[in-house]
Write a structure and sequence with these properties.
The chain is mostly helical. It contains 64 helices and two strands. This is DUF3730 domain-containing protein. InterPro entries: ARM-type_fold, FOCAD/RST1_DUF3730, Focadhesin/RST1.
């Protein structure tokens, strides 16, 4: 009562007087209620509260914890209003609070009060020091089961909230060893409520650190691992004689630059012919020495090596090209063209071995030429297609098939004719070739080609070109899969059972295709090549949206690798060895891809152990057949690739014992007398385990070989690259040194060749990665300069970053601190800078927490919210941390975006403006094209959501577009047109209810806010409304939607009421049933917001239209809405289709009585009279049965309201009869009620 009526306060003051107060100390309920009343007075009116200061003091002196807490809270309100000086009051009451730690309620009240000590803390340093220590002790209090006590949790949270108001400089002086204690307290806290309170405190610390940071820069990476020294001296160690290059062809292709350094240093264009001659000679020597022997794996290793060779060749030629003759842009094109001509020139004079190598070199050339070299790529494709179709030359066909598959990915996206030719050629040869090896190579080529399909969200093209080529990429993916699987079933009938599980391939049509071929063990690469092609197709399947088929292919490949621990006999089915070979080689890239797109739930340790157990079993069986040599080689190389893919990804930790067992097996293989193929497998398995990526031409499984992940040396787990891991570095370096010595000194030529080749792959990969890191660093120098500044060892940002980096989710029994991780990420999101560590790995690990950890272990927090925090962090720091930018790029790719949780999609949509600042123009264009397809495609997974969820996503999209228009995009940029297309896509999705009301208010609100930002010329183009007389029901709703949008824009002031007026006839001449009633409501609201002249014009025009329209009730309802909103009775009126007409005899005269109608009242009355006579005459005839329902062009649907309308208009005319001419008044008097 006293809050509303001030005279009641003296009575209340008497009740709250300390003397009255003391009489109720024994009655706890009354005592507590009086204390609560004192607190309420101090909160609502501190000026009144100060009159009760003695009562406040009595509360604080009370021994009742609840009353004491209320007294402390009361005093805090008085200090907040600066009516009571905090430090003066504290001096008085501090002696009463010596035992605050006994009760959490008192501690909570005390923390609320101590927050106000921050204002003059520096002036009262010693006292404030004690206050800070008190807050710290309460905030970190964990005795007596305080972690589970809700009251203590509240008190601790309040303590940190109050601490955040004190200067950090004071806090660090007040609390000994503050930086360490704060870090430990924060990272060991798991309660969400306390963490939320700590968040602001940590952010204040981070700001303080940044302001007072040391402006010192660190030097570049100085740590040099022992293996780096070995790799550096490799060329000098293995190529002691220049003429010995051909003895180690693989290593030479990867490491040697065949042009003289002196020539390149002088850079004279006249020496260009000498460089070409040197490389041409090397080409023929290496091609003659490189023995591939119908082995697809060796061919892929060779092609990978030729890629380095032609890259060195191009670099040398570009260096010598005269800049006057050729622009900087055209130099690589000319170099590529010259090299291609030389390669073609060497073909006619070559033997089959050389021809195979040159074919692979042509494929390698297309992989290194710039994307603009369309002519070279097309010419190479045409050349190899001729070879592919020469059935009499097997060596030409199978090598050309592999190269064509890779070249397919180099075509320009619009060059669909060339793509069609390659696909058709591979289809023809795989069907008609007699050679099984050619079939296998074509299968691999088709698998590679699949990765070049569906690279855009919308693969449609120019209609003429589409009609000419008949090239549909979605159909091509399915046809490729069907062709590969059908070929596989023909060659290996036992695979049919597994492949029938693939829904995309139409495998039900395979019935009867199984043919009992004899064993292909003498030519195992036929089946293995097809399996490799099947594995490479998962990328296109994923883009197609066939996620279940991607998972099924992964499972099929795993099933074809026998489990040694099972009771089944190994390889008891014909050609099962070849299936296993292909699966061992294909599976690592499939697993890497599934890891990246979060389609992997397999036990990676068990999968890796399946490889090692199988290798061990084969070694024990001591089978000498060539097919088993090939199998052991495939197992070793595949296992090495799988291991590096898992470890280099940095998300999953492997048992070091399992890794060591595998590496020991490889070591045993290449140090004991085995056939050359087995030695090759052992060495390449080792270097691939170290991250060489030999033979991986797609880059799916490539991960960084550099790592900053912390390991304990004695840890039983290893995560991150083996070569740089303290856990595995000793073993891996020792093995690398052994292979290096074999490359340098081995007597057996095969062993020496393979060892040099393997180490050269590792060297090439290591150098290229470090070079790309250096290039990236130089390109982003201005941004990364801030990142290179050192962080102090006690820096909170530094330590929190390391804590995230070194989190171990694999320890059994540990509860994953999901709350803590999320809060740490929140704090680092607000940090101005973060150290340059493995943020890509860190964020991906955090994103997968809920997939790795049982729900019961996540401390009752929704782990999907952690994924949101990962996004916010990435968005905040992606501009200067490349892995985070790549992470966002992956997430916003349409196939990945489709599978994200709705809340993650919503965050990305709302932050479109931020993404546009991060992405290039071309990437932004693709993003908007993808989103348009996602929301507008009839087959989009977005349609699987409920209508409410879809509306939430669209609302997020509207908000994101709006921010783009405000912050990023101007009308002159290309992005402007992309945004316009997105808006055009979203507009038809704004739903209306049956009565015309917007179905989802928040979505409509976001849409209108966005359209308000758009230039005025836009809505006029997008919101065109045609006559509604001949529209279907769907078009009728679309017209209503557009008019409602226009009306709301007019109400907001960004569209002229005159533009809305152009639609007046359409609006008022359409039946007001269903959605159109809300159109009238929205238009009336818009007109009400316009100036008086517009209102008058609309009313007069509405009356005129009512005299001629087929639906006069529509015009009358609008008149009723407009008059009702403008008259004095507006607050009392009920708005519905009937009431607005019933109220017209009151609302219209009231509106006309306004001064704005002084010169037009008579005109309005005359128009009303004309409308009345029309309706009255029609209704009278209907009543007498003399007229038709559609009389005088009035629609028959209006007949049921004819009498009501006539009587209502008659009453309205009587209300305005003073403004009618005398003759009309007389006629009105003669009208009788019907």
């Amino acid at each position: 009562i006293w809050i509303i009526t001030d005279w009641a306060f003296p009575n209340l003051q008497g009740v709250l007087d300390p003397e009255t107060f003391s009489r109720f100390t024994t009655d706890r309920e009354v005592f507590t209620s009086i204390a609560a009343s004192v607190r309420d007075v101090c909160k609502q009116n501190p000026d009144r509260g100060v009159d009760l200061i003695l009562s406040v003091s009595s509360c604080i002196e009370s021994r009742d914890s609840v009353v004491q807490a209320l007294g402390l809270e009361s005093l805090s309100y008085l200090c907040e209003a600066d009516i009571v000086d905090f430090y003066t009051a504290w001096k008085v009451i501090s002696k009463e609070l010596t035992d605050y730690s006994i009760d959490p309620m008192v501690s909570n009240g005390l923390c609320i009060l101590l927050r106000w000590g921050a204002m003059d803390a520096e002036a009262y340093f010693e006292t404030s020091k004690n206050l800070i220590q008190t807050l710290w002790s309460i905030g970190t209090y964990k005795k007596n089961n305080a972690e589970a006590d809700r009251l203590w949790i509240k008190a601790r949270g309040t303590a940190f909230h109050s601490l955040s108001h004190y200067k950090i400089s004071l806090i660090q002086d007040s609390i000994p060893d503050f930086w360490r204690r704060n870090y430990e307290c924060f990272t060991n806290e798991h309660n969400l409520e306390v963490l939320k309170a700590m968040e602001n405190f940590q952010v204040e610390i981070i700001k303080f650190e940044h302001i007072n940071r040391r402006r010192v820069t660190t030097d570049k990476r100085t740590t040099v691992h022992k293996f780096e020294k070995l790799l550096d001296v490799l060329p000098q160690a293995v190529f002691k004689e220049k003429s010995a290059h051909h003895r180690l062809p693989g290593a030479a292709l990867l490491t040697i630059k065949f042009s003289s350094e002196d020539i390149l240093r002088e850079g004279k264009s006249k020496d260009l012919s000498r460089v070409h001659a040197a490389y041409e000679q090397a080409l023929m020597e290496m091609a003659e020495s490189m023995f591939i022997s119908r082995n697809i794996v060796v061919a892929l290793l060779a092609l990978h090596s030729w890629k380095s060779f032609v890259s060195h060749w191009m670099q040398a030629v570009v260096t010598l090209l005269d800049t006057k003759e050729s622009s900087k842009l055209n130099k690589p094109l000319k170099a590529a063209n010259d090299i291609f001509k030389i390669l073609c020139k060497c073909v006619p004079v070559s033997n089959p071995r050389v021809a195979v190598n040159i074919t692979l070199a042509i494929g390698a050339l297309c992989l290194v030429v710039p994307p603009t070299a369309h002519l070279v790529i097309t010419s190479a494709s045409d050349f190899l297609l001729k070879w592919l179709l020469q059935y009499e030359h097997e060596h030409q066909q199978w090598s050309a098939a592999i190269s064509l598959g890779l070249i397919f990915n180099c075509f320009h996206p619009t060059d669909k004719k060339s793509k069609l030719q390659v696909i058709d050629g591979l289809f023809e040869v795989i069907s008609n070739a007699d050679s099984y090896l050619v079939k296998g190579a074509c299968g691999l080529g088709l698998g590679y080609a699949c990765q070049g399909l569906l690279t855009r969200a919308d693969s449609t093209s120019d209609s003429d070109l589409e009609a000419t080529t008949q090239f549909n990429e979605r159909a091509s993916v399915k046809e490729v899969l069907h062709t590969v699987t059908a070929s596989l079933v023909k060659l290996c009938p036992s695979s049919c059972h597994s492949l029938k599980k693939l829904s995309i391939c139409g495998t039900f049509s395979m019935e009867g295709m199984e043919e009992n071929y004899d064993s292909l063990d003498d030519d195992p690469w036929a089946i293995a090549g097809l399996v490799l092609g099947l594995g490479n197709s998962v990328v296109a399947l994923y883009r197609l949206g066939a996620y279940e088929d991607v998972i099924e292919i992964k499972n099929i490949l795993i099933s074809w690798i026998p489990d040694v621990d099972s009771s089944s006999v190994l390889f008891d089915v014909v050609n099962s060895v070849s299936l296993c070979m292909g699966s061992c080689l294909a599976l690592p890239s499939v697993i890497a891809f599934c890891q990246r797109v979060e389609l992997l739930n397999d036990d990676l340790d068990a999968l890796f152990n399946r490889y090692t157990s199988l290798a061990t079993e084969l070694l024990n069986l001591k089978k000498s057949e060539t097919v088993f040599q090939n199998l052991l080689m495939a197992i070793c190389i595949g296992a090495g690739s799988l291991l590096s893919g898992i470890l280099n990804d940095g998300v999953h930790a492997m048992k070091f014992a399992d890794v060591k067992k595998f590496l020991d097996s490889l070591k045993y293989i290449y140090t004991h007398p085995y056939p050359p193929l087995v030695h090759l497998g052992g060495m390449f398995g080792a270097v691939n385990a170290f991250g060489a990526g030999a033979g991986d031409l797609t880059g799916i499984g490539w991960q960084s070989m550099n790592s900053q992940i912390k390991h304990e040396k004695e840890s039983s787990l290893v995560r991150g690259p083996l070569l740089t891991s303290p856990v595995g570095e000793t073993l891996s370096t020792s093995m690398l040194q052994e292979i290096f010595l074999l490359a340098k000194d081995a007597e057996d030529n095969h062993i020496r060749n393979y060892a040099a080749w393997a180490v050269s792959f590792l060297r090439s990969r290591w150098l290229s990665e470090n070079q790309s890191l250096d290039n990236d660093s130089s390109q982003r120098n201005s941004v990364d300069s801030s990142q290179s500044r050192s962080f102090s060892a006690e820096s909170l940002v530094w330590n929190l970053s390391l804590w995230l980096r070194d989190l171990n989710f694999e320890k059994p029994g540990d509860v994953v601190p999901v709350n803590t991780i999320a809060t740490v990420l929140k704090c680092l999101t607000k940090a101005p800078r973060v150290p340059a560590i493995d943020w890509g790995v860190i964020v991906r690990r955090c994103m997968k927490v809920e997939a790795q950890i049982p729900q019961k272990s996540t401390n009752h927090r929704d782990p999907t919210l952690l994924r949101e925090e990962c996004l916010y962090f990435s968005l905040a720091h992606a501009d200067h941390i490349s892995p985070l930018l790549q992470f966002l790029d992956d997430l916003t790719d349409l196939p990945r975006f489709r599978r994200l949780e709705m809340n993650v999609q919503s965050v990305l949509l709302q932050y479109l403006s931020h993404l546009m600042k991060l992405f290039s123009d071309s990437r932004s264009k693709k993003l908007y094209e993808d989103l348009a397809v996602y929301f507008c495609s009839h087959s989009s997974s977005y349609l699987d959501y409920s209508s409410e969820q879809r509306s939430m996503l669209r609302m997020s999209f509207w908000k994101g577009i709006c921010k783009c228009l405000v912050e990023v995009v101007s009308e002159e940029t290309d992005s402007f047109s992309y945004l316009k297309k997105c808006i055009e896509c979203l507009l038809p999705l704004l739903n209306l209810c049956n009565d015309g009301q917007p179905e989802f208010v928040d979505e409509w609100s976001a849409a209108i806010k966005c359209l308000i930002v758009v230039q005025k010329s836009w809505p006029g183009d997008m919101l065109q409304v045609h006559s509604t007389t001949s529209l279907s029901e769907g078009e009728h709703v679309d017209a209503a939607r557009k008019i409602i949008i226009r009306a709301r824009l007019c109400f907001a002031g960004c569209v002229s009421a005159l533009e809305l007026g152009n639609l007046k006839t359409t609006i008022l001449s359409t039946t007001a049933d269903g959605v159109w009633w809300n159109v009238l409501v929205e238009v009336a609201a818009a007109v009400y917001s316009a100036d008086n002249g517009i209102k008058k014009q609309w009313l007069l025009d509405a009356l005129d239209i009512g005299c001629v329209t087929a639906h006069p009730s529509t015009a009358l309802r609008f008149v009723g809405l407009l008059c009702g909103s403008c008259c004095v009775y507006m607050p009392l009126l009920i708005v519905n289709p009937t009431n607005v007409l019933s109220d017209l005899p009151v609302t219209l005269p009231s509106f006309l009585s306004s001064s704005i109608w002084n010169d037009l009242r008579n005109s309005a009355a005359d128009k009303l009279w004309l409308l009345t006579t029309r309706i009255y005459t029609w209704a009278e005839q209907l009543t007498r049965g003399e007229g038709l329902p559609c009389h005088d062009h009035i629609h028959g649907s209006e007949a049921e309201n004819a009498t009501f309308l006539a009587n209502m208009l008659r009453s309205t005319c009587f209300a305005v009869e003073d403004h009618l001419a005398v003759d009309k008044q007389l006629k009105l008097a003669n009208l009788e009620a019907l």
